[in-house]
């Protein structure tokens, strides 16, 4: 199978290559793709050296799957061109997520919606993915009415520039504008500002949690509010989620339900100080849930602490799981088109 990774030289692109190798995805031809300034650059994948190619060259090679992590504007321009030659695009940007005719997929929840007609498939936002993996079984059983979300998001979610800013500040130096990702220091600091502010005074990241959660769980009636905070950690994103249900629940039953959910690991033993942290989640593909407890201030309400590596399950791993599902179901084979 021909696999193209678009944005291969970026932070998420590097992790995509790692995950493809780790999961033994069936690759007959690997096509590393990046912007023109990176064309010709050598990268290593699975023990072999490859030269990075540009978009037009990659399209001419007609990959079966192109996994994009190159930004929204790049995806809007190039994903349809890949799709036109029969390639199935799995896009990690926000470009296609809220399009009515595009699937927004977390495989554990809604991969069964996919068919051979889905040529551009959206990968959800990193903070959304880890949260809905844990929420989906609870929503199915108890019916969620309202969510109050506070995120503590790794600076790696912003990209290499943010990590560079942190490293410079850690040395006691002041970053230049070229090396500054945030309007405030990130070293020893928390910044309640993820992405740009919108007209409603929420950030774009906060509204992604609102809109994407409703779409993935197929419930536009969900009441959701969010505050997204950038924190100086590299391991992953953490989330404090307060859930109000329509139906009564038992906390032990909730723990058992989460423990039985694919991709979820329950770490919830306060007597042993067991609960998830981003450092422990780093490099892993699972979603970790702990601090599971009833909210005594409201009826039928629950608190969860949800942690996951944002570069893995929040991005690369989820995208590759989509490709795995398409391959296992024979959808990729059935969707190829031939052009003269």
Order of helices and strands: EHEEEHEHEHEHEHHEEHEHEEHH
CATH class of the largest domain: Alpha Beta
- Tell me the span between the first and last alpha carbons: 21 Å
Overall domain count: 2
Looking at CATH, the homologous superfamily of the largest domain is Dihydrodipicolinate Reductase, domain 2
Strand order across the biggest sheet?
Answer: 9-8-10-13-12-11
Tell me the CATH architecture of the largest domain. 2-Layer Sandwich
Helix tally equals: 11
Count of distinct strands: 13
Please tell me what the overall shape is. Answer: globular
Q: How is the main sheet built? A: 6 strands, mixed
- Cα radius of gyration in angstroms: 20 Å
Keywords:
340 residues, Rossmann fold, five-stranded parallel beta sheet, 2 domains, disordered C terminus, Dihydrodipicolinate Reductase, domain 2, 11 helices, alpha/beta, six-stranded mixed beta sheet
Structure in a nutshell:
The protein is an alpha/beta fold and 340 residues long.
Kindly describe this structure.
Helix content is 33%, strand content 23%. It has a six-stranded mixed beta sheet. A five-stranded parallel beta sheet has the order 2-1-5-6-7, sandwiched between helices. With 340 residues, the protein is of the alpha/beta class. It folds into two domains: 2-95 and 315-335, 3-Layer(aba) Sandwich (Rossmann fold); 127-309, Dihydrodipicolinate Reductase, domain 2 (2-Layer Sandwich). Helix 1 (11-22) crosses helix 10 (312-328) and helix 5 (126-142) crosses helix 10 (312-328). It is globular. It has eleven helices and 13 strands. The chain has helices at 11-22, 55-60, 72-84, 107-110, 126-142, 160-170, 204-216, 251-259, 278-281, 312-328, 331-335; strands at residues 2-6, 29-33, 42-45, 48-51, 65-68, 88-91, 120-122, 144-154, 223-231, 237-245, 264-266, 287-294, 301-308. Strand 12 (287-294) and strand 13 (301-308) form a beta hairpin.
